[in-house]
Amino acid sequence: MKSNLYIWPDKVLYSGKHFETESHKHFLAQSIVGVHGPIHVELENSKVSSDFVFIPGNTTHRIIEGPKNNGDNLILLYTDPHSKISAALEAEYNQPENRTNRNIIEKLKEYGGREFDPLSLDNFLSGFHRSKIKFEIPKIDPRIILTLELLKNWDFEKTPDLKTFAEKTKLSPGRFTHLFSESLGIPFKRFVLWTKLTKAVLALKAGKNLTEVCHESGFSDSAHFSRTFMDMFGVNPSKFLTDSRSVQLYIFDPV
Question: For this UniProt entry, which residues form the secretion signal (predicted)?
């Protein structure tokens, strides 16, 4: 059965065969679910073996091995670290005795290693706001929200520079840099890389060749793109993006 990679504007989900990664970190929070048994993750100062591991955004980690059965599958769910979805998943990880939250993990296991209606998953994840658990979601400064909107529509043939965004938000470069990192927990340049990667994946899905993709998404060449992808996800992009026989890619536009 094929592995599946689903990309929404606000989350990414991989469902399929287990694989190991190199040590890496990224802006998004990551939830790892072992469908058939425990998965093993190396964090900055510890190792964890569990059927569910939640990793906060911008945290160095590495998947080191998986279940030993032949049908080992896992779920990788990447979410905005400031979202209610991340808050719900983090609450489950920190409070494993909470049976209400445990249902979240069992539900995710149902999506392991099979194709499914993406709308059903999207509705399920979006329904977390109806949970009885109360979450404290950090508020993001309006000027940073403006920055995110500008980046979403940016023409990456021109590199997004710090000075331009500082001017658009009426802040000094130093203050803008501090406020962006304080609001999102990641430096501005690092977030720009994530945005460029998303744009590149969309272009690949549209059938464009790698040269066109790099040009449109602001990478100098294919090696630059591969290094950035490897740094973000810990695996070579060819694992997900070039072998359509083993990985099915789905990308969903903003509503």
Answer: none
Instruction: Write the pLDDT tens digit of every residue in 103-142.
Output: 677 777 877 756 667 777 777 776 654 554 454 556 789 9
Condensed to tens digits (0 to 9), the pLDDT of residues 227-249 reads 888 777 767 777 666 554 567 77
In our burial notation (b when 16+ CB lie closer than 10 A, e otherwise), range 231-240 reads ebbbbebebb
Tell me the whole-structure pTM to 2 decimals.
0.70
Contacts made by residues 225-231, CB under 8 angstroms, sequence distance 24+: 225/200, 228/193, 228/196, 228/197, 229/197, 230/22, 230/24, 231/24, 231/193
* CATH superfamily ID and name for 142-236: Homeodomain-like (1.10.10.60)
The domain locations on the chain are: 3-130, 142-236
State the Cα–Cα distance between residues 108 and 85, nearest whole angstrom. 13
- Tell me which amino acid residue 125 is: L
What spatial distance separates the first Cα and last Cα of the chain, rounded to whole Å? 30
Provide the percentage of residues in the chain whose pLDDT is more than 70: 78
